[in-house]
């Protein structure tokens, strides 16, 4: 336990600590302004602390303004929390702000896949792949999977359509009849 305390103290930057009137040390206002909420949020996501990451992303948006990075990060955190509607709104705002930002397109594609909108998801993955110049294995795999799902959906639709017949009834009236 003592080792952890020593390591934690060694990591502190003494220049960012101010001694208060009661003798304790706390980060100064200047020290807090230097903390990048996006970096903190990314680290919290990696640690599985998505709620805290979302708060860090909101702080980053307050500090930096709503830009493609902050909107995409907020949308991605909402995606991790299963808040698909909120995630989709933030990610759509991000791609509207910068249509060449691959992470926002990729994560929008994931949201759309989760919502069963395979065709639109495939298009989002295509845009992410193009914006990334095909450099990301993850985006390539997401595109491949979405296209496979899209092909399966088309095949299933074609099979379903084959089970119906179009029958003309009277002048201009048509009825679909099941062959089953």
Class by alpha and beta content: mainly alpha
Distance between the termini: 72 Å
Q: What does the largest sheet look like?
A: 2 strands, antiparallel
Poorly predicted runs of 5 or more residues? 1-31
In percent, how helical is the residue content? 55-70%
Give a structural overview.
Helix 3 (37-46) packs parallel to helix 5, helix 5 runs antiparallel to helix 6 (84-97) and helix 5 runs parallel beside helix 7. The longest helix has 26 residues, at 137-162. The chain is built from 9 helices and 4 strands, in the order H-E-E-H-H-H-H-H-H-H-H-E-E. It has helices at 2-11, 29-33, 37-46, 50-64, 68-80, 84-97, 102-114, 118-131, 137-162, and strands at residues 17-19, 25-27, 164-169, 173-178. A two-stranded antiparallel ribbon has the order 1-2. The chain has a two-stranded antiparallel ribbon with strand order 3-4. The protein has 180 residues and is mostly helical.
Write the layout of secondary structure elements.
Blueprint: H1 2-11, E1 17-19, E2 25-27, H2 29-33, H3 37-46, H4 50-64, H5 68-80, H6 84-97, H7 102-114, H8 118-131, H9 137-162, E3 164-169, E4 173-178
Antiparallel strand pairs: 1-2, 3-4
Name the descriptors.
180 residues; mainly alpha; disordered N terminus
Short overview:
With 180 residues, the chain is mostly helical. Helix content is 67%, strand content 10%. The chain contains nine helices and four strands; from the N terminus they run αββααααααααββ.
